[in-house]
Amino acid sequence: MKYPILVLSIMLSVTLVFSAIVTDKTDLYRSVFYGGYTSNIYPRPSGEDFADKSTFGYDIYIYDKDKYYLLFKAYPFWTIAGKYPTDWGDLERGVYLSDSLPYVKGITSGYENEKLRVIFGIYTFDAALSPQELIRQKDQTIDSNSDRRPLTIPLSGYGDPFKTLIIHRLEVRPFSGIMIAVNELNLIGGKMVDIVDVNPFGILHNTFGEGFSNTMLGVDFSAVIPYGMSVYGQFAMDDFLVPQTESGSQAYKPTAFAYGAGLRKVFKEHNLYISPKIEFYKIYTWMYNRWQPLLKFTGRFGGIDIPMGFDYGNDMQGMLIGADIFTDEKMKIFLGAEYYQKGSVDLNTSYSDNEKKKLTQFWCDLFPPVTDFFALSLKIDISY
Amino acid sequence: MINRKKLLLLLSCFIFVSYVFSSARLIFRNDPQFYYTYLKTYPLVLPLRYSQDEDDSTKLYLKLPFGRSEKVAGNYELASGWYLPGTPTDSIFRRNYLELPGIFSLGFSTSYSNNFYASFNVDIPVGDTSFFRYGYENIFEMKDMTHIGLDFPKNSYLSYSTDTIDFSFGRNTISYGPLKYNLLLSDSAPYYDNLSMRVKSGNLNYSFSALSSIPMLSKQEYDQQFSFGNFYAYRNTFVNRLDLSFKNFDFSVSMLNHTGGRLADIRDMFLFSDNGLFSADSRYRGFFEIYTAYCFNYSNFKNSFAAGISKTIDAGDVLIRACGELYHVQDGIYDHEVPLKKLYYRTISVSNNPGSRNFPDTPFGFFYGENSNIFSAEAVIAWEDGYIEVVKDFGNNSYGKVEHFLARINAKMPFADLNILLYDTKNADKDYFGFSFFYILELGVII
């Protein structure tokens, strides 16, 4: 018998606010209340500051050794380098790149005007592997599509100590309050990145399991609707088994999607914004997973692998009910209650278990046995 | 009937002729405006920058090619395989395939303040192995979705340009030198993933490009590569060029440094590397244009030489040019015993039917490859928004006799581009004779 899982989290933080850089989503929630649309990505230059098209310059913000920013802006371009949390999407628990990661190290950059944004990120991750993981990473026979698979030299796969995520997004705002974005995530592992990989104007990069990359498609949508409400959603595709060309490959890379959708209402009482929301999530069984440790969509922090997207991992479905409560400057609170059903496949499940993978009915459905999963969260952040 | 009217109304609302121009916009050989701009400015570095007024705007578009491409005769078929390197012969025949529009393309262009221009173009092609097996299929007569190729985009970039500096980052072709087929860095490759800049200072201009190609190899190449020890999966190329221009005379020196199997350092970028080319070229612009180029490999001292003569008549709105160019390229000039150090740009073309992952390698320099003696003649009539071009190349290369004939009309029309091609290519006892005509409709919305 599987016992339900209960996660309780209470977090209190004190944050230094940087006027020129947006570091949370409160301005996104305010835009729902006042109308219009800003962006659901942070960090980025603050709207008021960046919209001044004569602005040209740089700022350095150091909070502590785990959080610092170097901002360079020359309208319509901006770049933020450093070590900082990042989040891409409206959802509390984004499905392709979210603040599930404590921080990223790298560059976030953008080209934007009133109707369009091209946003681009390169983030590096801890690539240290245990001896067993290194053997798995360098085993060139593990992925039948790798160009190194036919090699007879043992352990000749891509195993250089690098893990880099490249993400780029095209975000279009055709009408006031409506945003549609297409993202591509390209994870390069076992090889240092090159111009071919980081090219912000590439797509797919011709990477189809050649041994050093793993790609994911992300689609983002949000619309501000009347009565101070917004609807939003995200879809991520880690893999898709194309029936016309990949039939018979069910044990290779299973279809792996993740999506979430939500509804938010924002109202204001005196100086307090209150924003209740409800969100639904579905994370397919084999999402974020991969044979090679450096090609899993995870970041390693303190020896723990954290998914880059949905906080709790894969093989899950459920919902969140919560509220963001914040003032214009000083304080923000998140209160959330979540209920999920969790299948038995997680990111430690071997991706080489072909018998499990070819059970196509469990690509979408939860892999039994299924466990109930509850989470209660309280986050308080005081800014100064 | 009502639905049809609504559809027409909707369609007409979304049709715009695309005139989003910026001085930072790049133009390439297959752009209708290319030859007019080229013959007006005589550049030594491609791509060109379009010189018309900018318009701060963003355009989303869908391009739909209406037309056909037919093979009349020929016995060439592109080999299919699993990480299979191509030969120069494959590149020669594949060029005809690359001239065709894709099944459709979807993208955006955006410009700001006459200095910034960005273009992103998802041009979905017919797969190259599908094209040579089944022929071209447009979106309305696709027999099988597996005929779609996955080698895209081929031309997407971000560009910044001022009076003194040009900068670009993305995927596009580049060519350094006065010739149609340059000897050190040419636009033979389908594209380069590159970061490029040019510093302009009166008579002295400096250009720099950093290119990277995919580091993957075939099994045979890996066996050879590993025989030299462990290596990093890295293949980078750095090109430096200095142009000295006087009233009627240009002199330039260029250096291409290529490193493979290890990370590049500052020496590779600006001095020498594991393998590379050095070239000097000059051009005299009098009644005729006379130009020459000499290029040698500084690792093995193999060399190449080219000379050309051309005459351009400027009749105001119309420009007419005729030219003849002679090339001699020694065997082994682009070669190296270590696979990652060969002077070839490697892309990967993934197609599904016949299933294949090909490496269509192209030399950084001369398009027809090593051991070549080629004469190329070209005649062009260009106007502001189009050109007619006739090309005849003949001679021989490592794989035997080369013959290539191309006639092309490329013109901007209302709502669309007209593209008519006739080509007849022979090399290595293979031949391919075909023609195509396309009316490439552009549906765009300016946001």
Question: Could you list some keywords that capture this structure?
Answer:
heterodimer; A: 384 residues; mainly beta; 16-stranded mixed sheet; two-stranded antiparallel ribbon; 7 helices; 22 strands; globular; B: 447 residues; 18-stranded antiparallel β-barrel; 3-stranded mixed sheet; 6 helices; 27 strands
Helix content of chain B: 10-25%
Structural class of chain A: mainly beta
- Helix/strand-derived category of chain B reads mainly beta
- What's the order of the H and E elements of chain A? EEHEEHEEEEEEHEEHEEHEEEEEEEHHE
Oligomeric state, counting identical vs distinct chains: heterodimer
Shape field of chain B = globular
Shape of chain A, please?
A: globular
Strand proportion of chain B: over 45%
Low-confidence stretches of chain A: none
How confident overall, as mean pLDDT of chain A? 89
- Number of E-state strands of chain A: 22
Describe this structure in words.
The complex is a heterodimer of chains A (384) and B (447). Chain A has helices at residues 26-34, 47-51, 131-138, 195-198, 243-246, 354-357, 361-364; strands at 5-15, 21-22, 41-42, 44-45, 56-64, 67-74, 77-84, 87-88, 104-112, 116-124, 163-172, 178-189, 213-225, 229-239, 256-265, 267-269, 272-283, 298-301, 304-307, 316-326, 331-342, 371-383. Chain A is mostly beta strands and 384 residues long. Chain A is built from 7 helices and 22 strands. Chain B is mainly β and 447 residues long. In chain B, the strands form 5 sheets. Chain B has an 18-stranded antiparallel barrel. In chain B, strands 5-21-20 form a 3-stranded mixed β-sheet, covered by helices on one side. Residues 1-22 of chain B have low confidence and may be disordered. At the A-B interface, loops of A face strand 6, strand 7, strand 8, strand 9 and strand 11 of B.
